[in-house]
Design a protein that fits this description.
The protein is α/β, with parallel strands linked by helices. It is built from 8 helices and 11 strands. The strands form 2 sheets. It has a 7-stranded mixed β-sheet, with helices on both faces. Strands 2-1-4-5 form a 4-stranded antiparallel β-sheet, with helices on one face. About 3% of the residues have low confidence.
């Protein structure tokens, strides 16, 4: 699943192993995430998506391996203003206005004092909340609060955005509007890593990663993954890959017991899909 040798990816993960609560959540993951694309990290709840994202932003303790972002160690101080992170839980203060929240986050990422007003106006306009800038966050709708959290992550013009299920629970119109924002950002050179357990969101991504039980089942464009699996959509492709993984595990078990087993292909990668 490692591609484009010679080109430094936005995010590089090598042999990542994470243990949480005595359980191995990620057993040894290697992947590259390309620059300037909307990359969808898709998989069921509990498969390790949030843990991987926490590793990327440098807030997750890892057992072994290496994670680099923009060719720097994940979580390093040099990345503070270059990486934006949106968690599943609301990341803004309800008793402050939208503007007050964003001024606070601008100070956190080191925005010069003279530029704070312009920066707040920029991100408020980007998420279409200029008319509500003076409103307290706890008076807003759920969708509006989600957009405020996104605005907070956008403060400082980050080069990489890590968004953990930003569209879950939102109505179709708001979901469409947010994806439009994501693609505008990517067109401007921003790399977006966006997680979701909703497989149909794969069609909105430039590149998809299908994850299950801490392992990457597929890494490529949707067209590549569909071509390699013969599936009609992302959900069917995911189920096909799960079946293949189960067959591989069964074959490995049979081989270790001394029973001959057929070779099972490795997980789908874009390199394999385009052969």
């Amino acid at each position: 699943m490692v591609k484009n040798e010679g080109v430094v990816p936005a995010i590089r993960v090598r042999d990542l192993r994470v243990i949480r609560g005595g359980r191995t959540v990620i057993p040894g993951l290697t992947l590259d995430i390309p620059r300037g694309q909307v990359v969808g990290l898709l998989g069921p709840s509990g498969c390790g998506k949030t843990t991987l994202m926490r590793c990327v932003v440098g807030v997750q303790k890892i057992a072994s391996g290496d994670v680099r972002v923009l060719d720097l160690p994940a979580g390093g101080p040099e990345l503070r203003h270059r990486v934006g992170y949106l968690t599943q839980a609301p990341s803004v203060y309800g008793d402050l206005t939208i503007e007050e929240n964003l001024r606070y986050f601008a100070a956190v990422v080191g925005t010069p004092r003279k530029a704070v007003g312009d920066e707040v106006a920029r991100v408020v306009d980007l998420v279409s909340l200029a008319d509500h800038a003076g409103s307290r966050v706890d008076t807003l709708s759920g969708g509006q609060r989600s957009r405020v959290s996104l605005a907070a992550a956008l403060v400082g013009t980050p080069e990489v955005l890590v968004l953990d299920e930003p569209t879950v629970g939102l109505d179709p119109v708001l979901r469409r509007d947010l994806w439009d924002i994501f693609h505008r950002l990517a067109e401007g050179g921003v790399t977006l890593l966006i997680s979701s357990h909703v497989m149909d969101e794969a069609v909105r991504c430039d590149h998809i990663l299908l994850m299950r039980a801490g392992l990457m089942l597929a890494d490529g464009t949707l067209a590549e993954v569909l071509g390699a699996t013969g599936a009609k959509d992302a959900e069917q492709a995911f189920l096909t890959l799960v079946d293949r993984a189960n067959a591989a595990a069964a074959a490995a078990g049979a081989a270790s017991a001394g029973t001959p087993a057929d070779h099972v292909p490795d997980p789908v990668s874009s390199k394999e899909a385009t052969r």
